[in-house]
Specification:
CATH architecture of the largest domain in chain A: Roll
Number of domains of chain A: 2
CATH class of the largest domain in chain A: Mainly Beta
Order of helices and strands of chain A: EEEEHEHEEEEHEEE
Oligomer: homodimer
Strand order of the largest sheet of chain A: 2-1-5-8-9-4-3
Largest sheet of chain A: 7 strands, antiparallel
CATH superfamily of the largest domain in chain A: Electron Transport, Fmn-binding Protein, Chain A
CATH topology of the largest domain in chain A: Pnp Oxidase, Chain A
Chain lengths: 209, 209
Amino acid sequence: MNKNAFRTLSYGVYLCTTWDEGRPTGCVANSAMQITSAPATIAVSVNRLNYTNEKIADTGYFSVCVLAEDSDPLLIGKFGFSSGKDTDKFDGVPYAVRGKLPVPDDCCAWISCKVVDRMETSTHTVFLGEVIDADTARGGKPMTYAYYHEVVKGATAKNAPTYIAEPEPRKGEYVCDVCGYTFEGDPATLPDDWKCPVCGKGKEHLKKR
Amino acid sequence: MNKNAFRTLSYGVYLCTTWDEGRPTGCVANSAMQITSAPATIAVSVNRLNYTNEKIADTGYFSVCVLAEDSDPLLIGKFGFSSGKDTDKFDGVPYAVRGKLPVPDDCCAWISCKVVDRMETSTHTVFLGEVIDADTARGGKPMTYAYYHEVVKGATAKNAPTYIAEPEPRKGEYVCDVCGYTFEGDPATLPDDWKCPVCGKGKEHLKKR
């Protein structure tokens, strides 16, 4: 089996949000798809290790918020590389309640859903949600997962279904040990207040490999 | 609810294949996603009106064959705009049996699966398949659904979960009444043996709207 075949499936980059007893929370998802058109339903796959999974099950609601190519990549670092259990994912993130769910302003669309079914797998839950409301937001081109890898140079979190051990970075590359962001060049040339564009951590996290 | 939000979800373009009593058959799918990484599982959504749905249920096997940007768009017309019930989808399509399933040669990767679970919705079945074998094939960049719409200028079949009544074509546009392909220009200037690049039908199917 050649797992590189899995990399040819096309995905977007989404923030999947819900509520944690009145506090907004969420995680990054790339596996979301429309299942039926009338009534409109959306399936999203969330790892059971993600705190968001538990909270979607508790509340019965989730929103799929679509990131644009020019959305702040720090959103991906914030939502994808820390846990809502001990972090306030929405700290410093402007958002509004849309279709009952918290939706960051920096998204190009959102689809808010009520859970109507679920399928459990060995590691992930596929939630099927009936759309309660949806809208395009601030505009922009939806970010594809390929764009995230090729242009943003972001990595895949270990809880993602699409996680495959990344190939070894090329010689001279540095990798952020928090989020996997690849930096090409010499970190010594970076200003002291440099922050990783994906997770926002400092340059001390760039490790040569 | 603004259904344009649904168009911001990112998809690929796949041929979902299976067997019909020893005869290869299949349909176009755009909603496929990896669900777990170990063991690897893939979910694909197929309309119950599609003959392929019945055959996947009968055999318990399907393959997700990934189309490349330069795959012949006639494959989409052939697999997406006719039924395997009364058509031989593989007629004239070079293919090989890979991981027990029929895989057209003109794909950039394939993922063959055994059905391990399913979720029924009002119109579609979400099949969950454990990957039995997968490989990259002839290479090429995977076709995204956005590329299919913007570059190939193809339309969406009515059985697709992502189907939304298309916006009215602009003045002077012609639309293929078989597959929805949009032609800009005057069909009178086309040679008599012109064939629609998506479904292969003649220019008599181009209708001004």
